[in-house]
Amino acid sequence: MTTTDPRLASYLDRIGRAAVPTLDAAGLLQVLAAHRQAIAFENLDIPLGRGIAVDGDSVFDKLVARRRGGYCFEQNRLFSDMLAALGFANRPLLARVWLQAVPGVTPPRTHVLLLVDVGGEDWIADAGFGGSFVPPLRLVDGAEGHTPDGAAHRLRRLMPEDGMAGEWLLERAGPVAATDGRSAPHEDWQPQYSFELGQVAPIDLEQANHWTSTRAETRFTTLHVVSRVLPDGFAAMSDRRLTIYRGGETEFRAIEDAAEYATTLRDVFGLDIPASELTRLRIFAG
Fold it and tell me: If I label 60, which of 16, 76, 127, 145 is the partner at 20 to 30 A Cα–Cα?
């Protein structure tokens, strides 16, 4: 089956899907996996001194027409729009990321995911989590999903005694190398993010995006981060350190200069950014 919606057709071409997915859990997983494998997670416009726009037209132009990547507010805005075009009703949720959280400190709501109606049931779907590949999960306590990189994710309904802000908690267990490096050094269950089901207005997303992309001394204003889901693994680059986990094997590499960085972006992450532009990044200053 094909579509007559030109934007949806361009998106499906961008993620390498020749046919419109079915409106069920299998179809949701197919389009999510294709999206994550085709469109890299990256924050490079922030260190390059550009703003991050999260309206639908700007995000479509950047991630689809110009074939760039983006971070959660961009990725899940595009994914939300395209799911709606496919026929999946959905809405955004804001989340607190617990990876590397300081003990006793509640992290801010700097992540967005989607609540999706799948055949009358609530599911979560997340095309914009840079830490690892999160599969779609039905919104029930104990729901669990497995990914080709050998990891498992599960949802847990939070209780007051858990001491974590939110109604729901996403946890992950699996290979540390199949993450962006923020995972604790063990393969047991670890908290990823917590979230509530309350309504999120567009201005809430604008505010959270602005804080996340501009506040000094945060992950996205101090680091250059890129990641991409592989069919059987995960690739991540933080500043000039590259990690590729594929088929149970891990490769580490230090990026020497802007030219190698540009080649790595193109060959590993599918991003074509000229080395002449990348020399402006502070990791290559001096």
Answer: 145
